[in-house]
Write a structure and sequence with these properties.
Helices cover 44% and strands 0% of the residues. It is mainly α. It has a domain at 35-125: Cytochrome Bc1 Complex, Chain D, domain 2, CATH 1.10.760. The protein is elongated, with a radius of gyration of 21 Å. It holds the Pfam family Cytochrome_CBB3. Keywords: Heme, Iron, Metal-binding. This is Cytochrome c.
Length: 140
Amino acid sequence: MSDQPKPGPYSGDVVRPAGVVAFGEAPDPVPPLTPALLRRGQERFHIYCTPCHSELGDGNGMIVQRGFPSPPSYHIDRLRAAPPRHFVDVITNGYGVMYSFAYRVAPADRWAIAAYIKALQRSQHARPEEIPPDQRQALR
């Protein structure tokens, strides 16, 4: 028994932090932004996200109105500056009181939802000079 191998401080299995060991699915490349992708993202957003985040993305969905904690608005500066990958990661892994939707939302749909969130953010914060002149006339 005295000559049997003993575990040292650096021997044995090591638990590594998430995202540093390759296994499972490879990360999906960012799909090209198309009208079809945005339509799919809008559809999936209304199914999975609006109960908490609302259709406007302001964090005042039906669940929140019934007493559950409010998620942050997508229109705050921190989230407006976040890349689409941030939203894909949150959908995949969860964040705060939001649980993971990885088993409910397919990877391609996560990117579609992230693209729609960025479009939703842009719709609430577009400057007049960014709107094409022919469409500017329709807004007056």
